[in-house]
Design goal:
By secondary structure, the protein is α/β, with parallel strands linked by helices. It is 41% helix and 12% strand. The chain has one domain: TIM Barrel, CATH 3.20.20. The longest helix has 17 residues. The chain is globular, with a radius of gyration of 18 Å.
Length: 283
């Protein structure tokens, strides 16, 4: 059976390193459940614990979740690079901006490169061997010059990047095809919306997706974290990707039900190290 007929799926957990609850759900999902890949947020307080987990489990797949924003009301993130070198990326208190639009307006291209290179080098200095780079809140899709920095970092560190016109549009950027930098774009990408969460529930969305997944390579972005006081405080007044959302993701992708659906629909779980991915996206 050819690769174009079979169904290949990366179930990818964003935001590893965000919190203990996030790490635990992601780790259990990768060891015992249906999560095949994740990416780590280097500026977050629980990055170190997640890094140690991957050093103990080098067979698992992970990337670097390049971060330029901190969207949580009481849980901001500080950059890795010295603040004096990246003034356009921070507020008066020295934290990342909470919203993408502030990056769109204020970010200096060279300062973005300095900060994101520092995040990658911090991970590498710990002995981590990431399989790819991706972008938190797809902030690197906000402007053409930021996409070019993204591509530059991928080439510099010989890592494939998650480049997607669908995610660029989702970030609110209106670039025509001829305005986009040349590169390998992945468009069979899925992520539940807030409307899905409110109306049907995430489990119903995932059930339908797995039953109807097209052939070829697809990527499903999820955000698992177990229910806890920690996550309730972090996601305060932020129901979109909030504590309830993340707990539903954690339970679904650690369930026998999810595993059974994958088998019943002949879906092969793969990660970023699979030749199908590296042949498409490079590195």
């Amino acid at each position: 059976m050819s690769n174009t007929v079979k169904k290949y799926l990366i179930i990818h957990a964003d935001d590893a390193g965000l919190a203990e609850s996030e790490n635990r759900a992601t780790q259990e999902g990768m060891l015992k459940g249906c999560i095949s890949s994740t990416s780590i947020m280097v500026p977050c307080p629980w990055f170190f614990e997640m890094a140690q987990f991957f050093l103990r489990n080098p067979h698992l797949d992970y990337g670097i979740h390049l971060t330029l924003t901190g969207e949580w009301k009481t849980y901001p993130f500080k950059p890795i690079a010295p603040l004096s070198k990246i003034p356009s990326l921070i507020d008066k208190q020295g934290y990342f901006f909470p919203k993408r639009d502030l990056i769109r307006v204020h970010a200096n291209t060279n300062e973005v490169y300095i900060e994101l290179k520092a995040q990658i080098e911090t991970a590498l200095s710990m002995g981590l061997k990431p399989s790819h780079l991706d972008s938190h809140m797809y902030t690197l899709g906000l402007r053409k010059d930021l996409i070019e920095i993204y591509q530059r970092l991928g080439k510099e560190f010989n890592l494939p990047i998650l480049l997607s016109k669908k995610l660029i549009a989702h970030s609110g950027t209106l670039l025509k095809n001829d305005e986009l930098p040349k590169g390998a774009y992945l468009e069979s990408i899925y992520m539940a919306s807030f409307q899905d969460f409110e109306e049907k529930g995430l489990s119903a969305f995932y059930d339908t997706l797995l039953e109807e997944l097209p052939s070829g390579l697809s990527l499903l972005l999820i955000h698992p974290a177990y229910s806890s006081k920690e996550m309730e405080q972090i996601t305060l007044d932020h129901p979109n990707f909030g504590a309830e959302w993340r707990n539903e993701d954690a339970l679904y992708f650690n369930s026998a039900h999810c595993s059974d659906l994958l088998k019943r629909n002949s879906i092969e779980l793969i990660d970023w190290k699979h030749p199908l991915v590296t042949n498409l996206l490079g590195a």
